[in-house]
Amino acid sequence: MFADRWDGASFPLPQQGTVSVELDKEGKLVTGFYAARTHAIIPVEDCLLGVEENKDVLMAVKEWMLLKQIPAYDETTGTGLVRHILIRYGFTTEEVMVCLIINGDRLPEKSSHRAAFGAAGDDFHFL
In whole angstroms, what is the distance from residue 121 CA to residue 14 CA? Predict the structure, then answer.
């Protein structure tokens, strides 16, 4: 099987992952991972399994969502826009890919995405 062929030492420890986004009971934006077999998010802003860049990217996306008043998806009402933030890091290219999984067709104010990431936004490609 796969475990017989996999040599964990040949892979860097940091992993990429999908962070879920929701509003807590007070309406505050919360990011983290789902607890096992639930839809309850365990708040996490920095995962030890992730690369260092993940935390900075996650904070930038959260700040952008708050600044532009982009709502997190609410499972109980089916409203809101951003459901998950997927962050991938290319160890060879040293590029970061950020995918927002949304409840809709598009994000508002596409031109503001680049500004949200400051000078780093010049190296980003937005679809």
Answer: 24
Sheet of strand 29-34, all strands in order from the earlier edge strand to the far edge? 41-43, 29-34, 17-23, 82-89, 96-102
- The DSSP secondary structure of 14-30, one letter per residue, reads -B-EEEEEEE-TTS-EE
pLDDT digits (tens, 9 = 90+) for 64-103: 888 888 888 888 888 999 888 888 888 898 888 888 889 9
Give the CA distances from residue 116 to residues 29, 63, 67, 88, 124, in Å, rounded to whole numbers and listed in that order: 17, 8, 9, 19, 11
* Residue entry with tokens 């949200």: 116
Band of pLDDT at residue 40, cut at 50, 70 and 90: confident
